[in-house]
């Protein structure tokens, strides 16, 4: 697969083993031939031997300085240390079939898993808070509106942590399309990204549903019947609908989705702008957590702030397989298509355009396109130069 359009990957630093562990394994030698197996290394002393032979100074010594410890610290897969065995990383030969397949679809798989995390925690917190009232005779529930906002925001943050170093963590068709229009994201990658996001929404909602299917059946009053509307309906735990008090004002519902999406894309563009404040490396998930928490707290009540077609349509596909009627798609005049779909995308494009008009100076945006006949040389940064 061509590397065109990929987000820069997190750099992998090669650290000498002697710098990572002050007591490395002895006799680490290997044949100079690339086809021969490395020589066996002697075993470490047993714990009983260590107890018998440990000196006073060794007993008081702290763990090896600089030696990484999973999972608190990342390390190279081939690192050979006290708490990590490189196992088959030293074997010669070609990668297995799945490793080669993942290489071909690495970005899409990251989008799939990141979007799934959004639904696992987002739909999960809706089920936990809205299905469990008066628990064990106590007059309280397992959550409220604010806990729901936290759950969705944490889901987005974890999704960004998972996918950010591989795909850029779009996790949202509105973000993908906005990046294509304003930031040069390759058009040929748009549809694969969106399909991966929808599948992630399907899978994540399936896992959340499997965790709460007993409570869903209790609310529905049946293990076989599922409803989209009504006092005991449960579809709204996974997908969004306009509030009844909007009284059929579809323009107001679409505006709510568009406004929230505009804020989202404007924030995404600002956080990823090298010419602005940006965010330190590794802090983007926290910034997105705060962004989603703010949007949900301020702009979420009218429509449930889907602001993400994959997060809304993927669960609808799953619910249709679980016995929910076709109104899961058709309710509110096909809200799922023109609300989280069209209105969200238009709002995102407007929000991204506003940021570029008012703030962004990069010439990869159509707002700052160089006119014809201007001449001059254009310096293009490679991924390696940007990482440095």
From TrEMBL:
Membrane topology (UniProt): Multi-pass membrane protein
Checking Pfam families in the record gives: MIP
Annotated region Disordered: the residues are: 1-83
- GO MF: glycerol channel activity; water channel activity
Q: What InterPro entries would the database entry show?
A: Aquaporin-like, MIP, MIP/Aquaporin, MIP_CS
Q: Provide the reaction this enzyme catalyses.
A: H2O(in) = H2O(out)
The main location is membrane
Q: Which SUPFAM superfamilies match?
A: Aquaporin-like
Enumerate the subcellular locations listed in this protein's record, separating them with semicolons. Membrane
What are the protein's UniProt keywords?
A: Membrane, Repeat, Transmembrane, Transmembrane helix, Transport
Q: Where are the transmembrane segments?
A: 109-125, 150-169, 190-209, 250-271, 283-307
Q: Where is the composition biased (Low complexity)?
A: 23-43
Q: What GO cellular-component annotations does this UniProt entry give? A: plasma membrane
Q: Does the keyword Transcription apply?
A: no
Q: Please give the PANTHER family that the UniProt record associates with this protein.
A: AQUAPORIN OR AQUAGLYCEROPORIN RELATED (PTHR43829), AQUAPORIN-9 (PTHR43829:SF9)
Belongs to which family?
Answer: Belongs to the MIP/aquaporin (TC 1.A.8) family.
For this entry, the protein name equals Aquaporin-like protein
User: Mind giving the lineage of the organism this protein is from?
Assistant: Eukaryota, Fungi, Dikarya, Basidiomycota, Ustilaginomycotina
């Amino acid at each position: 697969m061509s590397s065109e359009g990929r987000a820069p990957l997190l750099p992998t630093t090669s650290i000498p083993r002697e710098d990572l562990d002050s007591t490395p394994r002895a006799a680490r030698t290997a044949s100079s031939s690339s086809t021969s197996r490395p020589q066996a290394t002697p075993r470490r002393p047993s714990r009983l031997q260590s107890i018998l032979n440990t000196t006073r100074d060794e007993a008081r010594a702290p763990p090896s300085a600089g030696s990484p410890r999973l999972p608190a610290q990342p390390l190279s897969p081939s690192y050979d240390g006290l708490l990590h065995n490189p196992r088959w990383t030293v074997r010669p030969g070609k990668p297995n079939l799945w490793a080669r397949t993942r290489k071909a679809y690495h970005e899409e798989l990251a989008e799939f898993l990141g979007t799934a995390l959004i639904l696992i925690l987002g739909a999960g917190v809706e089920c936990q808070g809205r299905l469990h009232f008066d628990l064990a005779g106590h007059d309280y529930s397992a959550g409220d509106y604010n806990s729901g906002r936290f759950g969705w925001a944490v889901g987005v943050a974890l999704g960004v942590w998972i996918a950010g170093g591989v795909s850029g963590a779009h996790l949202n068709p509105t973000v993908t399309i906005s990046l294509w229009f304003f930031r040069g994201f390759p058009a040929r990658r748009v549809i694969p990204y969106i399909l991966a996001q929808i599948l992630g929404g399907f899978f994540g909602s399936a896992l959340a549903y499997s965790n709460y299917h007993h409570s869903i059946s209790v609310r529905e009053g049946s293990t076989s019947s599922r409803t989209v509307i009504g006092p005991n309906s449960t579809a709204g735990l996974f997908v969004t609908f306009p509030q009844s008090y909007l009284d059929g004002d579809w323009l107001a519902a679409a505006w709510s989705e568009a406004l929230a999406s505009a804020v989202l894309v404007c924030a995404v563009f600002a956080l990823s702008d090298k010419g602005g404040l940006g965010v330190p490396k590794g802090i983007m998930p926290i910034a997105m957590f705060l962004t989603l928490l703010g949007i949900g707290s301020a702009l979420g009540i009218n429509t449930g702030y889907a602001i993400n077609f994959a997060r809304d349509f993927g669960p609808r596909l799953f619910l249709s397989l679980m016995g929910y009627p076709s109104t899961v798609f058709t309710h509110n005049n096909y809200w799922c298509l023109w609300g989280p779909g069209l209105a969200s995308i238009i709002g995102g494009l407007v929000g991204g355009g506003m940021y570029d008009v008012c703030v962004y100076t990069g010439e990869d945006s159509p707002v700052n396109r160089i006119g014809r006949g201007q001449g001059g040389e254009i310096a293009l940064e490679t991924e390696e130069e940007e990482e440095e």
